[in-house]
Write a structure and sequence with these properties.
alpha/beta, Rossmann fold, 54% helix, globular
């Protein structure tokens, strides 16, 4: 089994969960983009993230996350965007040329953001996603990818 990476990339849905949880945990189950999650999911996510030395992201994931956070009402919107800015300042950002990404078969199947995530996985960066098609694709390629739904079922109940 390959050695676990010390870097982690969160897919968009999990990054917005992290941002909302850090901003106002009570909003997790209220905000339309995170209501499929619970506060316990947020705590599970935080614990998982804390196991890594560094967080990695892409402009594609950040843009999607920013757009989702922008759907919040003020003043929560501004606070969440501030939290996202803090995340951005602390993360390693990887840039992949969109023209190159569109040449990948995954682009036609899952889109630009997932194609960028695939490139990050190819750089030995661990990926955490709740997107089953992306998870399946990366797992079939031998990437170190974790499905958040699997983590939920493995987590001890509190």
């Amino acid at each position: 089994m390959p050695q676990r990476s010390d870097k982690l990339l969160l897919d968009t849905n999990l990054l917005i969960l992290l941002v909302i949880g850090l901003t106002e945990p009570a909003q997790i189950e209220r905000f339309k983009r995170t209501r499929a999650y619970t506060r316990a999911d947020y705590e599970l996510l935080r614990g998982f993230v804390n196991g890594y030395r560094a967080l990695v992201t892409t402009p594609n994931v950040l843009t999607e996350t920013s757009n989702l956070a922008g759907q919040l009402a003020e003043p929560l919107r501004g606070k969440a965007l501030g939290v996202l800015a803090g995340f951005i300042n602390g993360a390693e950002e990887r840039f992949y040329v969109s023209r190159v990404l569109t040449e990948e078969r995954l682009y036609l199947q899952l889109g630009l953001t997932d194609a960028a995530v695939q490139h990050a996985a190819a750089e030995q960066i661990s990926i955490l996603t709740d997107d089953l098609p992306l998870y399946g694709r990366l797992a079939s390629e031998g990437a170190e990818v974790f499905n958040f739904h699997h983590l939920r079922f493995q987590a001890p109940e509190s």
